[in-house]
Amino acid sequence: MSIDEAEFRRILGHLPTGVTVVATTGEDGEPHGLTASAVASASLDPPLVLVCVERSSDTHDHIEPAGSFAVSVLDDNAEALARRFATYPDSTKWEGVAYRTEATGAPVLERALAWVDCRVWASYDGGDHTIFVGEVVAGDAGRGSPLLYFRGGYGRLTP
């Protein structure tokens, strides 16, 4: 027996997650990125994170050849940025968005609450997604509160 896709989405929508932008620099030299909430710490030694990237996204096919990606954690004032990277076409989503590159050359958003820069360590088939595991080679975190995704909408953490 298998669960219906809509029901699966509804159920797991009750799990609040942080909101990030996963980005890489393509072979074309241009930045590519998408909003992602399926991001997790995977190991402390070596330091690894995993990101799940939908195969049909405009960013997916740029990560493996680049061999790197960055994860920018969005703060609670970045809902418009999250929506932009979730819906805009790749050709326009970076217009006016401030970013810099770090150790691997992957784009890190200037507005990031926290970020990690990763070399692709492994990738795995994850159904309609690819699970990219990245070895963290650089990162930092600032002060503030994260943007959250919960039951199909964005929210804020109120400690």
Give a description of the structure:
This protein is an alpha+beta fold. The chain has one domain (16-141): Electron Transport, Fmn-binding Protein, Chain A (Pnp Oxidase, Chain A, Roll). Helix content is 15%, strand content 45%. It is built from three helices and twelve strands, in the order H-E-E-E-E-E-H-E-H-E-E-E-E-E-E. The strands form three sheets. A seven-stranded antiparallel beta sheet has the order 3-2-6-9-10-5-4. The radius of gyration is 15 Å and the shape is globular. The N and C termini lie far apart (40 Å).
Query: How many strands, which pairing sense, and closed or not: the largest β-sheet?
Result: 7 strands, antiparallel
Tell me which CATH architecture applies here: Roll
Based on DSSP secondary structure assignment, what is the total number of beta strands?
A: 12
Total individual domains: 1
Strand content: over 45%
Structural class: alpha+beta
- Taking Cα atoms only, what radius of gyration do you get, to the nearest Å? 15 Å
Biggest sheet: strands side by side, in what order?
3-2-6-9-10-5-4
Judging from the principal axes of the Cα atoms, what is the shape? globular
Instruction: Report the top-level CATH class.
Output: Mainly Beta
Put simply, the count of helices is 3
Instruction: Please bin the fraction of helical residues.
Output: 10-25%
In the predicted model, the low-confidence regions spanning at least 5 consecutive residues are none
- In CATH, the homologous superfamily goes by the name Electron Transport, Fmn-binding Protein, Chain A
What's the order of the H and E elements? HEEEEEHEHEEEEEE
CATH topology: Pnp Oxidase, Chain A
Task: Average the pLDDT over all residues and give the rounded result.
Answer: 94
Q: How far apart, in Å, are the first and last alpha carbons? A: 40 Å
